[in-house]
Specification:
single chain; 184 residues; alpha+beta; Rieske Iron-sulfur Protein; 3 domains; four-stranded antiparallel β-sheet; 10 strands; 17% strand; binds FE2/S2 (inorganic) cluster
Length: 184
């Protein structure tokens, strides 16, 4: 449709037009298709998507603090989501770094997900916050971390003026009366 509009007489740059027409009848090659559709870790499209916030769950999917966790599959990664005792949502790698048990089956208690196998416990930032059987002054747990992704809960605002909900990770600029501008 865009190419047809150009043909009907829009005053556009010749280079633009020749570039568009040179590709309008060409089928996408297999490698171009893979470039655009592969979203596993390390792929170009995955790297692009990871520059943006991505809707993952509805808040109502995790209604209770210390409630049941959820399996989440996104961008070819298997993750586990949970709401901790303070109401924060965590999205972490479900593979326990001790013996690879699934943290999905862990106990969600006291601001962390505790592995059901030997009890290592992880907070919403992926830090290991408890390793049972370690002596009280042991710093062993400080060396252990699982992959964790930043999460925020936001709602849409359809009425003026648009107001950016304050979060520690929101860098948008607010202009009075003009809603929200994207980050520079
Ligand atoms: S496998 Fe998770 S604590 Fe051992």
């Amino acid at each position: 449709m865009f190419c047809n509009a150009l043909q009907s007489g829009w005053n556009c740059n010749k280079v633009w037009i020749s570039a568009l027409f040179s590709c309008q009848d060409r089928r996408m090659t297999e490698s171009e298709n893979q470039f655009l559709t592969r979203i596993g870790p390390g792929t170009p499209m995955s790297n692009l998507m990871r520059q943006y916030w991505i809707p993952v769950l509805q808040s109502t999917d995790l209604p209770e603090r210390d409630g049941a966790s959820l399996r989440v599959g996104i961008l070819c990664e298997n993750l586990v989501a949970f709401r901790n005792s303070d109401g924060k949502v965590g999205l972490i790698d479900p593979v326990c770094p001790h013996r690879c048990a699934s943290l999905f089956f862990g106990r969600n208690e006291d601001n962390g997900l505790r592995c059901l196998y030997h009890g290592w416990k992880f907070d919403v930032d992926g830090h290991c916050v408890d390793v049972p059987n370690e002596p009280p002054r042991s710093k062993f747990n400080g060396q252990i971390k699982v992959t964790a992704y930043s999460c925020v809960e936001k709602m849409a605002s359809f009425g003026p003026p648009a107001v950016c909900m304050e979060t520690s990770c929101c860098s948008e600029k607010k202009i009075p009366g003009q809603g929200v501008t994207p980050p520079q």
